[in-house]
Amino acid sequence: MSIGVAAVESNDRLIERVAGGDRDAFTELYRRFARPVLAMALRALGDSGRAEDATQETFAAVWRSARSYRSERGSASAWLYAVARHAIIDRARQRREPVADIPDEPAPGRGPEERAEESWLTWRVHAALEQLPERERIVIELAYWSGLSQTEIASYLDVPLGTVKTRTRTGLARLAGLLEEVRQ
Amino acid sequence: MKEPDNLQDLIGEDLSPEELARLERVDSLLRSVPGPPPELPASLTRSIDTIGLERSRPTRRRLGLAVAFAAVLAAAAFGFGRWTADEGFDARNAIAMQATKAASEAAAVIEVGERDPDSGNWGLQLEISGLPTLAAGRSYHLWLAKDGEYAASCGYFNVGAGTTRVVLTVSYRLKDYDTWVITESGGAKDGPWLLKATVA
Fold first, then answer.
1. HSE-up (13 A, CA, CB side) for residue A183
2. Does the distance separating the beta carbons of A138 and B52 come in below 8 Å?
3. What is the DSSP secondary structure assignment for residue A90, as one 8-state letter?
4. Cα–Cα distance measured from residue A61 to residue A134, given in angstroms and rounded to the nearest whole number
5. DSSP result, A25-73
6. Nearest-angstrom CA–CA distance, B29 and B58
7. Does the pLDDT at position B59 exceed 90?
8. A24-53 residue pLDDT tens
């Protein structure tokens, strides 16, 4: 089975439009990246209020700094990751508290490079999830992170078990395409 | 929390070895990372909506009214499914409305109920706060809009102090519209949009 990814405007192009003051493009970037940013902030700051503040600051920085983005220097996703990382570290420093997930100091068992790699991997997986159709994203999130069985998911969503399996399979196939570079 | 089912339980067993190997790699990736957060808090989305529009952005904390509605969304965890709200309203989904600059302190959630199979009517429950109480003879107006134009009236209401709950019934096919809008009713010409939300 091969599942294609519907043609959508690239993240590069969206940032270019944001640089020109296009709010629709900004809204679309927010839709694609807000949950990955919030997830990273929650892991790093451990507090939902501060994580929301850091996420807000991230997107304010995206709005202000979109003109500084240069696609030849790296992917749009990587640029957004860097903007988010800076915003989260700034938020953490305001209270002089250590950042839990984004490495700036060695931790027992895992060096900063390993933790940086894990954080970047998580970012890419979360960003890819946001590109799935909602019906597929929902069943995958429930299957992997809710603790529910497929039967329980079917009951929760009030859809047949076969539909849950089909959506899961289709979503995973789509993710395989989106995450191709991660596995190489 | 319980481990996810194994891959073949998740997707069935009728895959080619190549496709199975491809999905196993994704399965392994997903198992190696923490899950994303639940749906975005309404307070965050509202604060983002103001970026670039105002000289001074309101902070998340200044948007305190929205916290109650964010809690509603958080309770929904993944933002879908059905649950029984207060006073027995059986909602299929909830949509957090975004305040416009014309009503920056307002917040609202529309809960869309089951469609009555006989009549085709939908029940709606609107929970709203942060709008001023209007004088007698004036009212707020919930619309369905399409392409930026008012398209279907969903009813009129007024608000009191705190949170006001309004139950409405409409017969429209929601997929024919793209935006929920609340205005102050102005007879033939309503006032500016006060709150809006995308039709889910």
1. 18
2. no
3. H
4. 27
5. HHHHHHHHHHHHHHHHHHHHH--HHHHHHHHHHHHHHHHHHGGG--GGG
6. 38
7. no
8. 899 999 999 999 999 999 888 888 888 888
pLDDT at B170 over 90: no
Q: Does the reported pTM lie above 0.90?
A: no
Q: What pLDDT sits at residue B88?
A: 56
Domain with CATH 1.10.1740.10 in chain A: 9-112
Mean pLDDT of the residues in chain A: 83
- In this predicted structure, what is the pLDDT of residue B82? 36
Q: What is the pLDDT of residues A106-146, one digit of tens each?
A: 445 556 666 777 888 999 999 999 989 989 999 999 999 98
Do B36 and A176 make contact, defined as CB atoms within 8 angstroms? no
How many percent of chain B have pLDDT more than 90?
6
**What is the dihedral sign for C-alpha B37, B43, B46, B50?**
negative
CB-count exposure of residue A56 (10 Å: 0-12, 13-18, 19+): buried
Going by C-alpha positions, the residue among A3, A126, A131 that lies closest to residue B19 is A3
**Assigned CATH topology for domain B42-198:** Immunoglobulin-like (2.60.40)
Residue type, B184: E
CATH of A9-112, picked from 1.25.40.10, 1.10.1740.10, 1.10.10.10, 3.30.559.30, is 1.10.1740.10
Bridge-based pairing of strands B83-84 and B122-129 is unpaired
- A182·B29 Cβ contact <8 A: yes
- Do A121 and B29 make contact, defined as CB atoms within 8 angstroms? yes
Dmax over CA atoms of chain B, in Å, equals 71
Q: What does residue B68 show for φ and ψ, rounded to 5 degrees?
A: -60, -40
What integer pLDDT is reported at residue B189 of this predicted model? Answer: 64
- Choose from B7, B10, B67, B84 for mutation: most chain A CBs within 10 A: B10
* C-alpha A67: how far from chain center: 22
Residue A166's pLDDT band, with cuts at 50, 70 and 90, is very high
Of A30, A35, A142, the CB nearest to B37: A35
Q: For residue A156, what is the DSSP state? A: H
